[in-house]
Amino acid sequence: MAGCKLMFACCVLVASLAMCSYGREMRVLTLSDDDVSYVCHPSRFMKLGLEMSNFAYCDSSLSFHLRAKDLVDRLTLEEKVQQIGNTAQGVARIGLPKYEWWSEALHGVSNVGPGTYFDDVVPGATSFPTVILTAASFNQSLWRNIGEFVSTEARAMYNLGRAGLTYWSPNINVVRDPRWGRILETPGEDPYVVGLYATNYVRGLQDVKGTENATDLSSRPLKVASCCKHYAAYDLDAWRGVDRYHFNAKVTEQDMMETFLRPFEMCVKDGDVSSVMCSYNRVNGIPTCADPNLLKGTIRDKWDLHGYIVSDCDSIEVMVDGHKFLGDNKEQASSQALTAGLDLDCGTYYTDSLQGAVLDGLVKEKDIDRSLEYLYVVLMRLGFFDGNPAFQSLGKDDICSAEHLELARQAAREGIVLLKNDDDTLPLNINHVKSIAIAGPHGNATSAMIGNYAGIPCKMVSPLDAFTAINNKKVTFEMGCSNVICADNDNAGLIFTAMQSAKDADVTLLFVGLDLSVEAESLDRTNLLLPGDQTDLVNQVAATAKGPVILIIMSAGGVDITFAKNNPNIKSILWVGYPGEQGGQAIADVVFGKYNPGGRLPVTWYEADYVNQLPMTSMQLRPVESLNYPGRTYKFFNGSTVYPFGYGMSYTKFAYKLVSSTQRLDITLANHQHCRVVNYTNSKFKQDCPAAGVDQLDCDANTVTLEVAVQNVGPKDGSEVVLVYAKAPQGIVGTYIKQLIAFERVFIAAGGTQNVKFELDPCKSFNIIEDTAYNVLPSGIHRIELGNNATISTTLQVNIHH
């Protein structure tokens, strides 16, 4: 999202989005005006001069569906259209208050969007690491815990009248291209990882303890309501004159199913998310927010969404002005979006044009009724109408608590990736280091650490703060560049000063990388290099430093640092993403060995020339041989890289041993079931029954099990991320090189061993989306590899008989 194309002066285009707030004058006051915490409160109706018993929507003995229908049926057409934009105006005559739908909680409660604000009562909220670093932990329980803590703070702020209950987060777009400016918001390039992140973070935000397994999902209580965005095939913001407001993503059905839709399907089906946001772009000529197949046909009908579909802000206006969809007729554009399944407009097109559209016969009033009922059922599940005693006690003490700040530190520690460690330079011995030279534009980073869609942090700890706080250490700091862009004329002098500081220090910590001035919403990169003179800064400081040089990269997207990887004077390299408000402390803990890094890269770090080989506008994941375009992501790119997806080192060593695995899967099709055709590179690979459609298989009855013993054979306690990859049977045309099918992060003490067991659904782990977009399980020998370098491997023979 919420690009907020025109609304509120397009605040997101400001370089430091964390500092962007719409101010109290933009706030929509709701229940806090009445000094009550929910709508159907007797005293509230008395103040309004209304008899609450006359309103069936306040009768808690009725189903949410009936109550929502009663509420909608009481509204006039004019009143209805005023409730279907992000700022719902309310209707005083029936006791319905205003409500602001737009709040954000990407990695903590944000002040982006008018639904949330900070002041003297709530001066800040915990700002966790940006999503790309949290994803690098490959720790599903961490992802869920962060969601739980964020929703606790959100609910506390709601009780204090400073926030809403509906949060348009997380961003679950797959990173297709390394230039994309919004990589920091996402869980990376693997659709399976992205989907699992979505499922866990959404569950953390939404789930009310004890109701997770409720059978009636349409009435299951919600702690807060979350939203998976931006649907779909959205991963270009502004690149060489092409922007998201005009871009037509030309996507094959194979790529759509395999990559772009999979995380959203997991978010809806497994996460039970209560909202999905459609994106600005077109897909194959149709704006996503007006595509009935994508919205009603897929999200609502096929995946069975229990909630509402919302537009990215001003998306209907973008349809008209950017895509020239349906000419310049606002009523037609709004009607098309509504009938396609768009329930809520973040913007004013619905409120301004839907009444006229109904009166002109372009859309049915009952279509508005349907969408309003979806919206009000979500608010009822949140306790907006009846209250929720489980959360009424939450208040100021539950925001920025010590427990939450510690989780922010832990999340940063778990995500940090060790990329290089010559001579076991790290961890540093705290007793042997007396002087530390900190250099580089991120040495005293603050706002850069919390990225975008951030609120006001509780307590920022910069790298300089953390290292300066260590007792009996002499710490110096030189920027080396005036800013991250590092292109000023006086950089030579700043670099020289940094060199001088490194000459006398026991160790030099070089903090370089990117920030929102280089990669951000509405700002894609054009290259994969360090900005400006940062490379010169690194090389010159490394050449003159007395002690070991540790290079620390803050970025979301990969950077071609081959020069540093090959420089013997740079002993160690850490990637720290954008590590949140406690990032400085987390970095210090890793550098001095209080924490052993175990993060893995969630995106491929390509060599710089990669972006010269294909335009960002080419959506295909597989190589395009006719144009000499390489493949995208680790699944389809087989060229050389700076660092591959899943890469990460540790201060200790781990050894794997296969304990057991399913070796064979025999599937017999019934008479009414049929084999599917799969294309082969050579007839010698062809199977008698090449494949079966997964929709005709009993997947639950054919679980594949895999158990591996992981031993810590090194000198230090540490965490290992066990990555399990599958390779399709040999000879199938156009399939992935390999794909991640499972992972688990485990902590193992030095000398200890832990068995890790995986139970794999063959229809999700060993399937392929073949070129005509059938989802099939192919016959043949599937290879299973553990670890990025196939530390150990095994095979699964799939035999399908007719």
TrEMBL record:
> Fibronectin type III-like domain: from which residue to which, for each copy?
720-790
Keyword list (alphabetical) reads: Glycosidase, Hydrolase, Signal
Q: Which residues form the signal peptide?
A: 1-23
The coiled-coil segments of this chain are none
Which branch of life, at top level?
Answer: Eukaryota
Which Pfam families has this protein been placed in? Answer: Fn3-like (PF14310), Glyco_hydro_3 (PF00933), Glyco_hydro_3_C (PF01915)
Its recorded name reads Beta-xylosidase/alpha-L-arabinofuranosidase 1-like
Q: Which organism is this entry from?
A: Ziziphus jujuba (Chinese jujube)
Q: What is the lineage of its organism?
A: Eukaryota, Viridiplantae, Streptophyta, Embryophyta, Tracheophyta
